[in-house]
Write a structure and sequence with these properties.
heterodimer; A: alpha/beta; Aconitase, domain 3; Aconitase, Domain 2; 3 domains; five-stranded parallel beta sheet; 14 helices; 18 strands; B: alpha/beta; Aconitase, domain 4; 2 domains; seven-stranded mixed beta sheet; 8 helices; globular
Chain lengths: 413, 181
């Protein structure tokens, strides 16, 4: 009889050419996809060459997306993007996406329709775990690891034990994937899932649209996880498969969540920080820049204005999201409300550009990290929340529950 | 394994890669630029004060956050010889091993070492020696991670594997031997 395995173990076993694998053991596994961006690719390219390799293992299996500092924010960033662009041309990389046709890598990948459940994806970006929502074993690595994967089509993995997380019940209004993610991280801590694979199940996940699942898987790494899987198709965990832990949470009454500076695990219900004045609101990123995120924001911003003392920056995560948001009228809503709308970029999330904070400034963002100095000056502060709280906060001028804004509640003077 | 001796720079828990090297400097991986800003957010005296051979000593989850390999590179560019931490975040662990930066996991050592204290790490004996002369047993990466580290890093490891072409994958099948990743 076959040994019972989790979804993560099944995927790694299949790629290691093994009938079974056990948590803790090390395997060399074939990778289906290698992903890198304009910051991590130049280093990976340099390392691949240092390995004595001048051709990637398969130019149709390497995905290169300039998204962090493009359209180039300065000369040095332009040079980095050029290194990746020239490499893509030289190697005949099939999946290279230029400015104007790109998107933030983790939002773009699901749109491309090339990943299949059960695939193994390594990306030189920690949020590569996003595609776990597609049933892909997707994990972030560094540039040298990626160089190895590009050179050999293989990489070593320690098989992670799995933590099964069940979200019971139906999510209330204004609560989505981001609130589940922040709640989860607050429960597990920033190290709670280190070296582990998270697996998400339960009614709330079944009801959650794909966009929301991508948001949840995206932030698995904020709890230290190696992967954040929503098993799909035949790649399901066997019921009797041993797991490291099981958690069950009832989320029918979950309030919108907010992570306070300087940790994504420093989470409180929005009402506990309501009234905190902000200087800037960012809606976008690989976490919450998809169409349904913009739809939620547009619903709150329609017919309202961004508070006079607030800058609202909206960044559709991909060109396709941008186009569809335009067609749906969301972009017009944002402009009429007084927001700045940007071409897709990671920009402000990592303090790159397009919304860097000055000393003492406060931002509420739908991004994924609020470490000290993440979005700019070390003495700036970032709160993390979903798009509903973000839009409400932009209108109120201070952190606000969406119902307060919709109902015409508290407003910063 | 090398013998290391240097001063300890102490930090707390959850030292993330944005703190080790902020993204605003990731327009390059020039060692001089990375060294000039390494850990400046956590301790502004660090980039100018750190000397080759010094050791970073930190709490739990060192290197959490972004996958940027610039973080271990920045530490190496400063001349940091090893990082002693209560625990390491997964991607940072891989990156450091791949680049040949020595990692030592020891909650006890982290608790005992004082800021600025001169400490020694003896790789052969698996010991960390305090300035008082007292020793604490410590753990180093094992299994595949150790093999990569012993090869001089992942670049050298893959280089020799490509040269040999059909060398079987070391570490494969060994259960429970790898501490990190």
């Amino acid at each position: 009889m076959a040994h019972a395995m989790t979804a993560a173990e099944k995927i790694l076993a299949a790629h290691a050419g093994r009938k079974q694998v056990v948590p803790g053991e090390t395997v060399w596994a074939r990778v289906d996809w290698c992903l890198a961006n304009d910051i991590t690719a130049p280093l990976a390219i340099e390392q691949m060459r240092a390995m004595g390799c001048d051709r990637v293992f398969d130019p149709a299996r390497v995905i290169l997306v300039p998204d962090h500092f493009v359209p180039a924010k300065d000369i040095a960033s332009a040079a980095q993007a050029r290194v990746m662009r020239e490499f893509a041309r030289e190697q005949g990389i099939v999946h290279y996406y230029e400015v104007g046709r790109m998107g933030i890598e983790h939002a773009l990948l699901p749109e491309l329709g090339i990943l299949r459940p059960g695939d193994l994806l390594v990306g030189a970006d920690s949020h590569t775990c996003t595609c776990g929502a597609l049933g892909v074993f997707a994990t972030g690595v560094g540039s040298t690891d990626l160089a190895c994967a590009m050179a050999l089509g293989e990489l070593w993995f320690r098989v992670p034990a799995t933590v099964r997380v069940e979200f019971r019940g139906r999510l209330p209004g204004w609560v989505g994937g981001k609130d589940l993610a922040l709640f989860l991280i607050s429960q597990l801590g920033t190290e709670g899932a280190n070296y582990l694979a998270l697996e998400f199940t339960g009614e709330a996940i079944a009801q959650l649209p794909l966009d929301g699942r991508l948001t949840l898987s995206n932030m698995a790494v904020e709890a230290g996880a190696k992967a954040g899987l929503v098993p799909v198709g035949p790649w399901q965990s066997d019921e009797e498969a041993p797991v490291a832990a099981r958690y069950t949470w009832e989320v029918s009454h979950l309030e919108p969540q907010v992570a306070c500076p300087y940790s994504p695990a420093q989470v409180v219900p929005v009402r506990e920080v309501a009234g905190t004045p902000v200087d800037q609101v960012v809606i976008g990123s690989c976490t919450n820049g998809r169409l349904s995120d913009l739809a939620v924001a547009a619903r709150i911003l329609a017919g309202r204005k961004v508070h006079p003392q607030v800058r609202l920056i909206v960044i559709p995560a991909t060109q396709d999201v941008y186009r569809r948001a335009l067609e749906a009228g969301f972009i017009a809503t944002f402009l009429e409300a007084g927001a700045a709308v940007s071409t897709p970029t990671c920009g402000p999330c990592l303090g790159g550009y397009m919304g860097v904070l000055a000393e003492g400034e406060v931002c509420l963002a739908t991004t994924n990290r609020n470490f000290r100095g993440r979005m700019g000056h070390p003495e700036s502060r970032v709160y993390l929340a979903g798009p509903a709280v973000a839009a409400a906060t932009a209108v109120a001028g201070c952190i606000a529950h969406p119902e307060e804004v919709i109902g015409g509640g508290p407003h910063r003077g | 394994m090398a013998r290391i001796a240097g001063r300890a720079w102490k930090f707390g828990d959850d030292v993330d890669t944005d703190v080790i090297i902020p993204a605003r400097y990731l327009y390059t991986h020039d060692p001089g630029v990375l060294a000039a800003h390494c850990l400046e957010v956590a301790d502004p005296r660090f980039p100018a004060g750190v000397r080759p051979g010094d050791v970073v000593v930190a709490g739990r989850n060192f290197g959490c956050g972004s996958s940027r390999e610039h973080a271990p590179r920045a530490l190496q560019a400063c001349g940091v010889a090893a990082v002693v931490a209560a625990s390491f975040a997964r991607i940072f662990f891989r990156n450091a091993v791949n680049l040949g930066l020595l990692l030592v996991e020891s909650p006890e050592a982290v608790e005992r070492v004082q800021p600025g204290e001169y400490i020694e790490i003896d790789g052969e004996k698996g010991l960390l020696r305090l300035s008082s002369g007292e020793t604490i047993p410590v753990r180093f990466p094992e299994g595949a991670a150790a093999e990569v580290q012993q090869a001089g890093g992942l670049v050298e490891y893959v280089r020799s594997r490509l040269a040999a072409r059909a060398v079987p994958a070391p570490g494969a099948g060994a259960e429970g031997t790898i501490q990190g990743e």
